[in-house]
Automatic annotation (TrEMBL):
Residues 91-100 have a biased composition (Basic and acidic residues). Coiled coil: none annotated. This is 60S acidic ribosomal protein P2. The keyword Transmembrane does not apply. HAMAP family: Ribosomal_L12_arch (MF_01478). CDD domains: Ribosomal_P2. The lineage of its organism: Eukaryota, Viridiplantae, Streptophyta, Embryophyta, Tracheophyta. It comes from the Eukaryota. P1 and P2 exist as dimers at the large ribosomal subunit. Belongs to the eukaryotic ribosomal protein P1/P2 family. It comes from Castilleja foliolosa. PANTHER family: 60S ACIDIC RIBOSOMAL PROTEIN FAMILY MEMBER, LARGE RIBOSOMAL SUBUNIT PROTEIN P2.
């Protein structure tokens, strides 16, 4: 993944066809190890291809991957649990909702543009 990131950084920097040395320099600048085999594999696979077309084809492939999580169903307790348990659970749910609304300070007291 770091080799791919280095390749994309090189292309973003204006080098439309980065060499293995370019990728090694980028990886060395952040203290990452450069694996020669992975670099050569990546360069052989992207040789002569446009990066925007590669990204577009990757998006198409990712669109077909299911990303939805499975839903968890919780069984309700049997009828013999007692009559007082249900109202107590309903009250605790109301309290949780109120607490969530109070804690909606998303900017954490600062802004990126101050």
């Amino acid at each position: 993944m770091k080799v791919i990131a280095a390749y994309l950084l090189a292309v973003l920097g204006g080098n439309s066809a980065p060499s293995a040395d370019n990728l090694k320099d980028i990886l060395a600048s952040v203290g990452a190890d450069a694996d020669d085999e992975k670099i050569e594999l990546l360069l052989s696979q992207v040789k002569g291809k446009d990066i925007t077309e590669l990204i577009a084809s990757g998006r198409e492939k990712l669109a077909s991957v299911p990303a939805g999580g499975g839903s968890v169903s919780v069984a309700a307790p049997a009828g013999g649990a007692g009559g007082g348990a249900a109202p107590a659970a309903a009250e605790s749910k109301k309290e949780e909702k109120v607490e969530e609304k109070e804690e909606s300070d998303d900017d954490m007291g600062f802004s990126l543009f101050d």
